Fold:
Amino acid sequence: MAGAAQATEGGASLYLPGLRGPLAGVTPPPGFYFNNDFYTYSGELTGGRRIQIGGAVLADVEIEARVDFLTASWISPLEILGGHLGFGVTLPFGVPRVSSGIVIEAPRLGRTFAFSQRDASFVLGDPVVSSFVGWNAGRFHWQTGVSVSIPAGGYEEGELSNVAFNRWIGDLYGALTYLDPELGLDISGTVGFEINGENPDTDYDSGNAIHIDLAISKNLTKEFSVGVLAGHYRQVSDDGGEGNRVGPFRGRVTAVGATAAYNFTVAGTPVSTRIKVLREVDVENRPEGTIGLFTMAFPLGGHGAPESARPVTAKY
Structure:
């Protein structure tokens, strides 16, 4: 019998390995900021293992995703216990391509068995709102916050290609960064807990999960830095719901990779760019593949630059 595979519906989660990397615990000065993350993923689920996507039970699945995350954030002048209070809004959109060698069951597609099914379309994801508080003391910076994914995106019932989750998701996290400007050294870690709701269109109830990220980076010049990354995601409760056709299976994934960043100035505005590449190396009940992230961030208005866009004075 083919093994069943699942780690939340479709093997997808609000958490992305590597998204919170260097400077994860740093909160910039009060002001408005813009951040763009371009995410790519190429993965597959082979060996006859099953996965449920959009209400359909599939096997031999290949996934190619190109998704952009636009984020606007505001660091307010308000303080909570000495830390700055901030807010953010993220809008994802893009083109996920899903192909399956075998469709085992797809009632919403009007099929009970087929040898192949492909789907690719441009779709809007669910908006994500965040709130956080950040502190610092000497070389230590830490931040705690919550993000909520609101099921208000362009989810299409019965389609395999969706950026939207069509379920409420909450994520609680805490991040800590040790930043030594003299050495140009950044050591950052993040831990979080993801709470998943039920997709009302598929009646699939995704399980909750924990996640951990670690990043170490070093400035080679004032503008250029390199580093290593690792992320781990583990489901801690079973999938369920009346629409679940693959069982109460929990998934996990560990991803490792590298990062490089370059900071520069355009018309007096500091700009921070970063690329991350991670390979999923320890995967259970999820697709396995390669993650790419390209990030560009800069402040809006005439206030000071965020820490990630400030040159680091290092002794070389």
Notes: The chain has one domain: 9-309. The domain at 9-309 is CATH 2.40.128.130 (Lipocalin). DSSP finds no helices and 16 strands in the chain.
